[in-house]
Fold these 3 entries.
Entry 1:
Amino acid sequence: MDIIEHDRLLIIDFGSQVTQLIARRLREQNVFCEILPYQIVTDDVLAEMAPKAVILSGGPDSVTREGSPRAPESLWTMGIPVLGICYGQQVMMEQLGGKVLGGKNTGGGGTAEFGRAYVTPTEERIDLLAGWFLGEKEQAWMSHGDHVAKLAPGFKVYGTSPNAPFAVTADLERNFYAVQFHPEVHHTPNGPTLFENFVRLAGFTGDWTMEAYKDIAIEKIREQVGDKQVICALSGGVDSSVAAALLHEAVGDQLTCVFVDHGLLRLNEADEVVAMFRDHMNLKVIHADEVDLFLGELEGQSDPETKRKIIGRLFIDVFQKYANEIEGAEFLAQGTLYPDVIESVSFSGGPSVTIKSHHNVGGLPEKMGLKLVEPLRELFKDEVRALGHELGLPSSFIGRHPFPGPGLAIRCPGEITREKLEILRKADAVYIDQIRRHGLYDEIWQAFVAILPVRTVGVMGDGRTYDFACALRAVTSVDGMTADYYPFSHEFLGETATRIINEVPGINRVTYDITSKPPGTIEWE
């Protein structure tokens, strides 16, 4: 299926950490959309894309700064609906003749807002806000230092907040809409309704589905790969498994999966993964036993970024080794998802801030001689699972909790040793077994044990112990960008701690991590 058949909505990315959440809201409305960084959206690019509507994202810059990002001037004369969000609102005002002032540190008068705020309506209601203000006010998430001080000609105010007198503005004649808050985040509960209203106003029919995405992705893979051979980095997790199934449907026997056993896997995972793909799905799978290589290079390393970089480098080295044995191999496929990308570098090269590096993001060194195929790069985890269903993967496999590419290395803060990994595998197996026994597995986004780099004193029987402490982690989430800890009962936690201490030699203390994301991340490193 050709993507040109779908009406397209363009999201111009000004560097917000949550730009991709805008795309999520649109996909929930079955609207095909693309995100491009503002740097490459020229007048010519805009004309060639011919989008049916445009959304301007938030961003970390200030429109009051000389040389700050702008939208193409031709956008304002295309006659299509435009929605500006936060920085996008400020860009719209500044380019169309309004005025934006800096925050209190730059003479703006102290109108910054960060966090929860409440928007109240003006007397005149507009279609963009249909379904809003059923009560006196709507909760919205604000994150701005600058603020609009003067509206551009043609705009009127339709919603205000305590520190944003122009929280919702619009020029109805030109179909230009702008909001100071972030309707894409979950902290704006009625945000999806606003997006639903916008795409309806723009005339979208909602004809884009995961089935359509599958067809598009297959065509893109075939166009990129041609008749060349592809190596797929298969970890056995949901992401790489769906990527492998998608690639196999696209190029068939041109695909060879390489499963790297790096010694950082969960209990019995290597055997289960190889059996699943080689024996049941009939894919070509190379089982690469590289335990000694990885653990040898990680020995003595405790810095999390150093560990990630070592693992990333070794993955590349291992795939290069096996690529040399496969005649005609020119591509390396990975199951990279958007949360990986957004935490490493802004989507499509945009200007957002790096959070942490990921082993499978950033391309490959030129010396490797392989080109990268990342067919899931624009998707969130729940979308990957939906794609897996479209590809016919079993639900039991698609529903597995996420497992990081660096494996247990990032669940073992401090130095990695074989002893600690063995303790960690056993503790994690007990924990997951407990979750399954209590029927909680499908309620939880991700659960795991982290072994802590401290030993604690304990008493077992009549003897003193001096063993490791561990932390249990379980979170609920929709897309991996934000997460809350799972509210286990004290009975469950007590029972689980008792089992781990009794069944896993080397652990004498169990804790439960109740940190949300943000401020923490889901993984410990």
Entry 2:
Amino acid sequence: MRFNQLILFLFLAILLLQCGEEKVLAIKDKMNTGPPKNIRKDIHSFAEPEVAKAKHLELNLLADFDTKTLSGFALFDIENNQADKIIFDTRNLNIEKVTLGENETPTIFTIGEEKEFLGKPLEVVITHETQKVKIYYSTNPDAAAVDWLNPQQTAGKKHPFLFTQGQAILTRTWIPCQDSPGIRITYNATIKVPKELLPVMSASNPTEKNNTGVYQFEMRQPIPPYLIALAIGDLEYGEIGERTAIYSEPSLLKPSLYEFADMEKMLIAAEDLYGKYLWDRYDVIVLPPSFPFGGMENPRLTFATPTIIAGDRSLTALIAHEMAHSWSGNLVTNATWNDFWLNEGFTVYFERRIMEALYGEEYANMLAVLGFQDLEADVKILDDKDTHLFLDLEGRDPDDGMTDIAYEKGAYFLMMLEDKVGRGKMDGFLKTYFDTHRFKTLTTEEFIYYLNKNLIDKYQVEVDIDEWIYGPGIPENVTKVTTEKFVVVNKVVAFIKENYDFGDLEVSDWTTHEWLHFIRQLPIVDEKDLMKRLDNKFNFSNSGNSEVLAAWFEVAIKNGYANNILPNIEEFLIGVGRRKFLTPLYRAFKENGQLEIAQNIYKKAKPNYHSVSTQTMDKLLLKGGIKD
């Protein structure tokens, strides 16, 4: 026994006599002398995976655009620990019958009491020998994960469109499953669609339509259910590189191929940083504008909003972000939604490293500064407990935790660690971390133990981990990021504030990021005249860049300029379903005494939004709103 171990032993023995065993064990845990206890109970799932767990899914569905339903069966191979039952998550599904085994022996099933956000448990009676469970079911037209679009809501205006969005706990609204990020499954699927349409999934995909309307899919790598995804539409395929391609409606294919031309380079840069890409292909589907997120990292096929098509490749950091998820999130997944930051914080950090590798340090720094501004804005409006990295979402929809805290505070936590140990050691740690935990799930406690063992203790780093992970707000030792490009922008803004004159400002080479920083620094003191003159000078209200439009409209509303450009704002809010844009604009209307205007626009726009967005807007505009 080493001397320091002897001292620790004697210390614990004395404590045992003075405090009792329970307190000593608590202190021992705090001192990190052994692996943490697994806190893996998912409060957002009815499943009991320790009893019986799904391992593989065979999905067979018919997509009926007339009735707006998916119908068929979900056949599960299960891991059976001598169980008498297996429990699945469902929400708003029609369960017709359940059978067991190859012979499809009918079995008893019960559907439990509904709980808000969670839906209902489906409890199936099995035997100790049961290896297969087959559930026949259909969805309802208002399934929260599924967006059924009529032709007018698409780019081509000729054919309908469907897409699913499963994160966080919406997959259970279109597939009965054990809907927890802590459970990984493989899957294959047979999807039948109208012959003029093409289905694609987060799996191996066809590249062209066939004559039958029946398509086969396979996902060989185990993934959590929230990453099972389906899109159906009038789609075309265009290659970018050996492993990268685009799916989109025909009219969007050419601009998409131009916009995302660097995807293969991004993939190579990502592999150079943190190891081999393990998902075979990285393709992107550009969806209609009702998609509620910028992108969704569905394996092999990222779902992306058309709002990132700016014509100048200036918004492609989003593609780098979703690609980074192929390591952080898809390869190594948060075990519960309380641990969501393990997905997003790592991904934002990784995204910026990819962008730096391709476009330089100044470019990545601009992204980091804008991200920090987003973080500061969220800290101001959220309750303290919701500014912790590790969340307590008991009794809440996990969607509530998808704020810039997980993304930006998580990324800045990793940047702080990089500052402490140096980039070389940090990269070595992360590469080993991804390789060690690939195709596995992780809790925050397990990550902290791994971090302490492989970075903090190894390099004798002095850092308060608890302050970042379990504490509120932004710690004082946050990394300070600056960029010379924004220094120039600040000088221009200062000149305008002081002189109310634009002169012959040289801004012709400004990128989207510089314009965003410029707009965010404008004064908000009822400056309608300044806003009008800026609009006349730079034509912000008619920008073809959605990020610039959203930032400009928010400042315009706050400055009392909204009435001058209300048709532009209304057109934007009706035509775009991305929640990142909707929430600040509707909130700005509300906070500036124009709630009725916001509600009138929302009434027109709501049919074009996915349920992920309508849930947030309903809360903001119709039910008392988000904390101001």
Entry 3:
Amino acid sequence: MSQRLAIAGTIVVLLAYVRLAQSQTNGTPAPSSAPQLTHFSLDNLDLKADPCVDFYQYACGGWMASHPIPEDQVWWDTISALQDRNESTLRDIAEKSAPADPKRDVTHQKIGDYYAACMDEASADAAGIKPIEAELQRISAIKSRPDLAAELGHLHRMLYLLVQGNIFPSVADPGSKEPLFGFYSYQDYLDATKVVAFVDQGGLGLPDRDYYLRDDKDSVELRQKYVNHVHNMLALLKIDSDPERASRRVMDIEMALARSWMDPVTRRDRTNMNNRYSRESLQQLMPNFDWTKFLAAVAAPPSEPYLVATPEFLRTVNSLLGSVSLDDWKTYLRWNLLRASAGLLSRSFVTENFAFYGKALTGAKEDGPRWKRCVWATDRDLQDALGRVFVEESFHEDDKQHVLQIVKEVEAAFDGVIHNADWLSPDTRTLALAKLHAVTNRVGYPERWRDYSTLDIARGNWAANVFRSSEYELARQLDHIGKPPDRNEWGITVTTLDAYNNPRQNSLTLSAGWLAAPLFDRSADDSINFGSLGSLAGHEVTHGFDSIGRKYDASGNLREWWTAEDAQRFAERGKCLVDQYSSYVAVDDVKLNGELTLPENIADGAGARLAYLAFQNRANSSLPAGKLTDGFTPEQRFFLSFALFYCGNITPEVLKMAASGDSHSTLKHRVNGVVSNMPEFKEAFHCKAGQPMVRENACRVW
């Protein structure tokens, strides 16, 4: 699962909200000096705290005190400097590529012209709503349900990248942000050798279902702010004669959709989402929707089967199609178009969008500079073009080999753990080892870069570039349907601060942009790199054996290959973690959801333990056991490095969002929850039984 998003303390769609909501600023400030990366330092510590009482405060207190959240951010963590460095590097690439030099190669031409068009805020202000006028006219021209289905397919094509918090949709997320429902290509659950069409719940303007269903005072107030925001945006559009009524109808539709969303804990069991339909049965599921028109408009090839994540949601959509007037559906589509594309329009739309999605929803105080939004958009829409230049200029190949060696040593430690897991039967153990040995490690960048030669990027119109990029990317994705999966495919850009485990391909991926301090420091000793990078590697490989990943076999097929007894013992060990993390308070009176965060908590705990074992197993460790450096043993430095990776300050608004929909625990509890279950930590810091960082009944799955 995504790590950068967890460190940020929020869910993937929040990134899209914040970035699309960022307002335009005047001028182009000169690039600042290169940000200083976060290295291991005693200045990060709060030596007044007791590591056995609150290790997170002890390891991170100094850093948090000296790094308040900037006005234009909603969090600030130890990875933020690396984010700044990457953005500065990408900005330099984009600005050097921007001048209309005929000597530029195709890659630099597309990067430069896209970025130049994005930076032209004067043209964006002058254009007003012109970038979406043609689409607004198409919506107004809808006269029937088949027209509605065709226009929905067209909107899916042009808004595909705009509504994604990441380049590729992930069913680990609560649902899609496309209008009405999500439609993608996806690797078949039961046959990992083919790609099929995937239909998911979607259509909401708030982050997930709970924002519509909770009845506490803050949630009620936020929903009213959202309705007011929809009203204000539609009023700026000047199409709906009664924006107040229109905003209420949008909320009515979204509320009905939210009630039928599958909750995120239920989605954790992928068998609940493996609902297989033929083309004919899909039409029978939604008789009020013209799938022929939609599939033609979205340009999707035939699929056998069609996977439907939430049939009950589609039944609700079908019911709404029969009860909601065509005029109200037009309003709903206009709102979805506006919600996704607001960041491409004139200043009044961008400012109002930021007022809700930035300030009200996340607690951001100021908007960010335009160049950052343009860098992020270029990376999103031309990910392999910009990423390829980034790797050529910024990535060290010797670092790749160093990282791969650490990953392999962590995997070797996991081999030993599985061998010694006396709670596993021989049959399950044999298959688990076979799966571990089949893992593919992908570090740095893909083996093959994408070809953007057929994508038209022009200097004059940023919005048009974005819409064409979305159509290009969705077409590329849907073209996979009916074919074997592309195992070279990456789910993130190479500059994204992220890593993930893909259980359908049994692969582990770490991006080039992340392989720097504090995650990986080529100048640091083993205790530091195993504490951070080693724990991350252990976290990701464990995802293949967590409560979700364990249900995929070595080939990526979803099937129960564990014995019933072993599966029951696994569940019992996991229940310990569910109870532990459900007792933690995220902010105010909001507690974590131990069921929702279980897979990540399993991976956090096992990841740290595997890294510690690998660190201890390395024969030629650069620091012999027991030797002090700056007053700390190598074992203590390991745990301090592990904690440093999660040091951060986050707004209360984002903490509440994270507790509601993020599959990861909050930063503090990702540290304290892990070390309190590790006797190795107790020994390293000489903690005593009964202290908060020493759980009487320690939880451990792996």
